[in-house]
Amino acid sequence: MSHPDFLWRNPDPEPAYDVVIAGGGGHGLATAYYLARNHGITNVAVLEKGWLAGGNMARNTTIIRSNYLWDESAALYEHSLELWEGLSEELDYDLRFSQRGVLNLAHSLSDVREGRRRVNANRLNGVDAEWLDAEEVKKFCPVINVSDRARHPVMGATLQRRGGIAKHDHVAWALARKADAYGIDLIQGCEVTGFEITKNRVTAVQTSRGRIAAGKVALAAAGHTSVLAERAGVRLPLQSHPLQALVSELLEPVLDCVVMSNAVHVYVSQAHKGELVMGAGIDAYTSYGQRGGVHVIEAQMAAALELFPIFSRVRVLRTWAGIVDVSPDASPVIGPTPVEGLYVNAGWGTGGFKATPGSGWVYAHTLAHDRPHPLAEPFGLERFTTGALIDEHGAAAVAH
Amino acid sequence: MLLIECPHCGPRDETEFHYGGQAGVAYPAGEVSDEEWAAYVFLRDNPKGWFRERWFHVHGCRTWFAVERHTVTHEIRTS
Ligand SMILES: Cc1cc2nc3c(=O)[nH]c(=O)nc-3n(C[C@H](O)[C@H](O)[C@H](O)COP(=O)(O)OP(=O)(O)OC[C@H]3O[C@@H](n4cnc5c(N)ncnc54)[C@H](O)[C@@H]3O)c2cc1C
Ligand SMILES: [Zn+2]
User: What is the pLDDT of residues A238-253, one digit of tens each?
Assistant: First the structure.
């Protein structure tokens, strides 16, 4: 059997680029793509220390939605969701984007109040949102146990019908193929190890494959962003934690929507191939080890089985972890840094897959124009000093 | 699961503890600027390597204490 056609070249680095993007996950690739597509900037390299999209992009549970509480987040995530709605066609690649509906369950009176408030806030922001009572939840997703004697009784749920899942590998490959076609260099096995900074302006990056001069440097390293920023003398309000997920063996179709529960830190969907995909909450401690404690998986499974007794004999196929960059207000940090020419896009934590196109769009604009895209403006670093936080713990929490 | 050595109870399972983040972050003294206050509230070290951090033996003797843990290998050494 011969190897199928390669989707992108595998170039060696040039000595200099207008823009160097550090990190070849979903956000780095989307940023490269939109730099070319929206701004005509193609003298760009994406430097990836491993292989393309082998970090969180390969490890996430692919939930996509935009029903965040605050105006700033709703605008940013909704912009991303609108991009998803046209992305398969635009990239000419089937991303398996499936708008099957996302339920966020409420298990207590305060969950109910928070959920209803979020539905109202979403509607005011033009984000589709519905409140379902327990009976309606049962109708929408018959395999959920809505008995009021359950350990985690279902008292209702928010529903975003336009939410869903996509196939993460396809997203990465499609973006990489298009970026490459624009002439952008996607350079794998190339770790950024340091920065050259003259008079507070970044002029080059040092890498495991030599020095590369850069007009601008865009960090897109997810869980490793703090490590990189520190080498440029910049401290970021981020903590890196393991986030675990698992898949079951393949099953017949049994679950045709996405179910999330912030309170018990479980989220479940059934992938196209048939495996149940379940995510947990973050491990408590900071880590770069790409693995977490089995007790986190155990607690998550216990809660999942209360919600879905029908899954009690399903076997786990494998578990894994990614390293997520958690910010103090559960919102991303996008924009310039104190070093001129050095930009950051991080802090997406447990929920940045859904933002892949939107994040790339606003980051590319920010790089091209040297000032934040209007949708990104509220997400600058300065909010931690001014106090204008965008607290999405309710909508993002540990879930997505 | 981590095995964490409580100075009072000895080595115990991680599930008995609550994580407390970076150790030794002092409350800023005197007049502070907005930047200094923001740093105190929001900025923490996030190293890839050894990290001095606090744990709370919440389901045991309820002592707060500090250990050094390696954030890649998860090895713990008491300090
Ligand atoms: C288990 C799990 C479940 C998740 N579930 C969801 C979900 O359901 N929905 C959702 O919206 N989000 C989810 N997320 C979050 C989402 O995966 C991330 O927010 C998002 O993928 C981060 O952006 P990225 O794709 O660019 O990151 P990554 O794919 O991690 O890309 C960063 C890249 O930078 C590279 N890099 C790091 N340091 C260097 C260096 N020095 N030099 C060069 N390259 C470097 C890394 O190798 C990596 O490839 C989940 C995450 C995990 C771990
Ligand atoms: Zn103790």
Answer: 999 999 999 999 999 9
Residue of A216, A200, A314, A324 lying closest to A268 (CA atoms): A314
Does B58 fall in a domain? yes
User: Is B73 within a domain?
Assistant: yes
Tell me the one-letter amino acid at A10: N
Please report the ipTM that was assigned to this predicted complex.
0.97
Note whether A215 and A17 are within 8 A (CB): yes
The answer as to whether B30 is a domain residue is: no
Rounded CA gap, A326 and A242, in Å?
10
Average pLDDT (A1-28) is 94
Q: Is A23 in the pocket of ligand 1 (CB under 6 A)?
A: yes
Q: How would you class B2 by CB atoms within 10 Å of its CB: exposed for 0-12, middle for 13-18, buried for 19 or more?
A: buried
Q: What is the pLDDT of residues A115-169, one digit of tens each?
A: 999 999 999 999 999 999 999 999 999 999 999 898 899 999 999 999 999 999 9
Q: Which domains, from first to last, does chain A contain?
A: 16-60+168-237+328-396 (3.50.50.60), 98-163+239-326 (3.30.9.10)
CA separation for the pair B74, B63 (Å, rounded): 21
Taking CB atoms and an 8 Å cutoff, what residues of chain B touch A227?
A: 46-48
Structural domain total, chain B: 1
The answer to whether residue B32 sits within a structural domain is no
pTM: 0.97
Tell me the shortest Cα–Cα distance from A284 to chain B, in angstroms: 6
Ligand 2: centre distance to CA A244 (Å): 28
Residue B69, domain CATH: 3.30.2270.10
Whether the pLDDT of residue A2 is over 70: the answer is yes
The range of the structural domain enclosing residue B51 comes to 3-25+39-77
Which residues pair with residue B55 across a beta bridge? B19, B65
